[in-house]
Design a protein that fits this description.
Elements lengths: L1 E6 L9 E7 L6 E2 L4 E7 L2 E6 L4 E6 L6 E3 L3 E7 L60 H10 L17 H9 L22 H16 L2 E9 L1 H13 L9 H12 L8 E4 L4 E4 L5 E3 L1 E3 L2 E3 L2 E2 L7 H16 L5 H4 L4 E3 L20 E15 L2 E15 L5 H16 L8
Parallel strand pairs: 12-16, 16-17
Antiparallel strand pairs: 1-8, 2-4, 2-7, 3-6, 4-5, 6-8, 9-18, 10-11, 12-15, 13-14, 17-18
């Protein structure tokens, strides 16, 4: 038997370190070749690390939220054969995580076990009960099922490593007389501590940096979307099978493309350290996208070169990459202005935070049919508010209001979106 040390490989882009986000194996687990070991994250890209060999996990290096350098050990495995750990490394240098170290006998790397007393690493199951208020170990699926059943995991004994609770443990708890509370009106107690790591930490840092550095100026305007919604419904009803369904976003971006050349200070990035504003001819639209891991902003590049159908297809493609965690660094960088939309949940108005170092962000709200006065008559119209924020150091309030008014005019007269 030998020891194999899996080290953090170079994940590219000149990255010297990565953050450990989540472990998918525990000490004592038997892993197969190509099995998912750990997630690490660099910048905004999360990378799944898989095992190059089969073996038994005898140590893990680093906890979620900690940084690991390229070339540093991540996981140590006991494997059949020699392994890759040098013989001069002593057992004291290992971080063996186990509930009973005396049950494991390790031979030097590259050698064979000697003597009848030598034992293989053994996954020792432990039964662990928790006091109410403790945070038990369990997978998200087990937690969700326990919540549906009304079971407090603090009262369930776990048979997995370090007392981890499985579905079988839940079944045993119920079979042994454990029951969900008989009433909905039951006092709850306990505090769950959630460490802010990975993408959520990067989002928090970026939002904090944006609010700290940028004096935001907010502006909200209502838009009569009746004519545009009629056009959109017609286009969706008559589109070809291979064409994507059109949302409001492609039309809004089309309006931005038409108006931004007259407001170059809005399609810009401000390097406030150097005191330089970079104004862009190209419109690289960031599309704020909600994913299971948090808000990510993939980029629709050269929006000015796409028609509404192309934009709809490209928005769907990059949003899918972001939600699946497959977006590359190129997909997530280089935006010059960001659009953030809550879709049908858009509410009445929002105060979006600028995607630093950009200087503007546009947030369309929900389209709602409501009564408005037209020519002295109360009529039903489909209305939508546009919420926006601007960097007041670069964009004056008058220019910001005029910019949004121009967007409003084009959306209310959709034919102008396609006229030179």
């Amino acid at each position: 038997m030998g020891s194999y040390v899996f080290k953090l490989p170079d994940v590219g882009e000149g990255t010297a370190e990565a953050e450990i986000v989540a472990w998918h194996v525990a000490v004592g687990d038997h892993v197969s070749e190509d099995q998912h070991l750990v997630d690490v994250m660099t910048d905004k890209a999360t990378v799944e690390m898989t095992s190059p060999v089969a073996g038994v996990v005898i140590s893990r290096h680093g906890e979620p939220g900690e940084m690991a350098s390229v070339g540093a050990p991540l996981v140590e495995l006991e494997i059949e054969g020699e392994g890759n750990k040098r013989a001069e490394k002593t057992i004291e240098s290992k971080k063996v995580e186990t509930t009973n170290p005396s049950t494991i006998s390790l031979a030097p790397s590259g050698g064979e076990r000697k003597g009848k007393g030598a034992m293989k690493p053994e996954r020792k199951e432990t039964i662990s009960s928790h006091k109410f208020g403790d945070k038990p170990l369990a997978s998200p699926a087990v937690r969700r099922r326990a919540q549906e059943l009304g079971i407090e995991l603090q009262f369930v004994s776990g048979s997995g490593p370090a007392g981890r609770i499985s579905h079988e443990d839940l079944d045993a708890y119920i079979a042994g007389g454990g029951r969900a509370p008989s009433s909905r009106y039951v006092a709850r107690d306990g505090v769950e501590e959630i460490k802010i790591i990975g993408l959520r930490r990067k989002i928090a840092e970026k939002m904090q940096e944006a609010k700290r550095r940028i004096p935001h100026f907010a502006y909200v305007e209502e838009v009569d979307m009746t004519e545009l919604e009629s056009l959109r419904a017609h286009l969706n009803a008559t589109k070809r099978a291979e064409q994507p369904k059109l949302s409001v976003l492609p039309f809004l971006i089309r309006a931005l493309v038409r108006v931004l050349p007259d407001f170059p200070q809005v399609n810009a990035r401000f390097d406030d350290d150097a005191g330089i504003v970079h104004r862009f001819a190209a419109v690289h639209a960031g599309i704020a996208t909600q994913t299971p891991n948090g808000l990510i902003v993939p980029v629709l590049r050269h929006a000015e070169a796409h028609d509404v159908w192309d934009m709809a297809a490209e928005i769907a493609r990059i949003a899918a990459l972001a939600r699946d965690g497959k977006a590359s660094r190129d997909d997530l960088t280089g935006s010059t202005i960001t659009i953030t939309s809550l879709g049908a949940l858009g509410g009445v108005a929002t105060t979006p935070i600028i995607n630093h170092p950009e200087v503007a962000i546009i947030g369309p709200n929900a389209v709602v049919e409501r009564p408005v006065i037209r020519d002295g008559q109360i009529v039903a119209r489909k209305m939508m508010n546009i919420s926006s924020s601007f960097d007041h150091r670069v964009v004056d309030g008058y220019d910001a209001a005029l910019f949004i008014q121009r967007i409003k005019a084009m959306l209310e007269h959709p034919a102008t979106l396609f006229m030179d």
